Amino acid sequence: MTTPPTTAPADVPPPDAAPADTVIALDVGGSRLKGAVVDAGGTAAATVEWRLTPEDGADAVVTSVLSALVNLRHHPAAAHARAAGLAVPGLVDTTSGRAIWSENLRWNDVPIRALAEERTGLPVALGHDVRAGGLAEVRAGAARGADHALVVPVGTGIAAAIVVDGMVIDGRGLAGELGHVDVGYDEPCACGARGCTEAVASAAAIARRYTRRCGLAVDGAADVLERKHAGDPDAEAVWAEAIDALSRALATACSLLAPEVVVIGGGLAKAGAELFDPLSDRLAGRLTFQDLPRIVPAALGDRAGCIGAAMMARDLVERGGTHS
C-alpha cells in the first residue's frame, strides 16, 4: 500500500481548527482503499486514496486496511472524530464484526471490527461495500426519497443492496446476491452453480462469453459494445443475452420486493442508453401485475461505498457508539 503523506495539505485545518464532530470512513475495494473524513453535515473535510495489493496475501491486506484507518484517524481534519465506518467486500457478519470471506482480498474470518477499534480507539461500524453504497444512493443519490429500492452494481460481478421501508437489509451478511439468481442459462458460475445472472450479465461475463463464442479476445464489455455498434452479430447476441438475463433477475426481485426504483451502477452502467433502454423494455415485458420500477444510473460513482461508510459511522454515533 502506498504510504499516505505525513503532512496535511494546505487546505486542511490545523487540529485546533478541525471540525468538532467528524467521522472517518474507509471503503475497501479490490485494488484501492478510498477514505474520507466527513463532518456532521455530510461534507468531506478530506478525501484520500491508497493502492491495495491483495496478491501480497491476506495478512498484508489486513495490515493495509488497518494502516489506512490509522492514517485517517491521525489526519488533522479528524482531530475530533467520534466514530469510523468500514465497508468491505465479500461475506460480512456485521453482528460479530467479522469479515467472513472475500475471494478478491483473500481473507477468511477476520475479526476486522475489533482490530479496527483497537487500532483507532474509535467505535467502528462495519458493513458490506455494496450495502454501504446502496445506503448512500438511497439517502443522497439516485434513489433518494424512495422507501423501496434496489441498488445494483454491475461490474466484474453483480450484487444488490435491498432497501425495504427505507432500511438496507443485511440478512446476516447474505442478502442481496442478485448475481446468483438462476436466470435459465446453462452457464457455469464461479460459485459452483449454473445459470447465475452474474455468469451471463456481468461485465466480465460479457467479455468472456464473446471471446468463447467467436474466438476473439476483447478488452472488456465496452469493447463488445463497440463491436455491437459496428454490426458484429456475435457482439449483438452476447449483449442481448446479458440484457435478457439481467431483466429476468430483476423481474424476480420485483415480484419479491416491489422496488420503486432500480439503481444500476458499476462499469456496465457507463453503457448508458444501450443498457437502460432495452433493460427497461425487457423488464416491462416480463411483468404483469407488478409495478414497473424506474431504472436509473447510480449518481455517486465509485465514492458511494465511502460515502455510505461515513453514513454508517454517523448512525453509530447517533446510537451512542453501540453496535446493537
From TrEMBL:
Which InterPro entries does UniProt cross-reference here? ATPase_NBD (IPR043129), ROK (IPR000600)
User: What family does the database annotate?
Assistant: Belongs to the ROK (NagC/XylR) family.
Q: Which PANTHER family match?
A: BIFUNCTIONAL UDP-N-ACETYLGLUCOSAMINE 2-EPIMERASE_N-ACETYLMANNOSAMINE KINASE (PTHR18964:SF149), ROK (REPRESSOR, ORF, KINASE) FAMILY (PTHR18964)
Please state what the protein is called.
ROK family protein
Species assigned in the record = Phytoactinopolyspora halophila
